[in-house]
Amino acid sequence: MILGLFRRSARDATIERLYGAIVAQAREPAFFRDHGVPDTVDGRFEMVVLHVFLVLHRLKQESEERRELGQVLFDLLFADFDRALRELGVADTKVPKKIRQMSQAFYGRTKAYDEALASGEGQALEEALARNVRADATADTTALASYVRAAAADIAAIPYATLAGGSITFPPVPKGPQPKGPLS
To answer: Which residue of 110, 138, 150, 160 is surrounded by the most CB atoms within 10 Å?
Structure first.
């Protein structure tokens, strides 16, 4: 009987597969190499938040019952953040404060991205990405914003059953702006 407490359900495996695909895309080297995303803890946080946002943005189209998948995904995201903080050596007494800060950042980012996509104003998304992902309000995020729009459109076309089955595909990460140099 007690062993039942330690068994993973098929749903746990499914949501972990979905989350794993999201994290794998967020860690795509092209974001860091070609788009100026800092290859730091903060830069990786920003990319995971951005990709989870894209899935949550898609799930807003669903019924309340189906949107529960988003809550499960959110819960797994923050359980993973908690685990990562502890692995980084953050003291147990400081983890809740850090998680609270991360959740505030998450909600701020998702609100900004959601409003930018809803506005249809290209500049709004580019500014939100520059401010959050690049931490430089003057950064060129045109290619990254194009990727986000393409990803949002691609994910919008994924049937709910596919997402609920733990499967998601993202568009390829485009080449970023190429630096201009003497050989250009």
So the answer is: 110
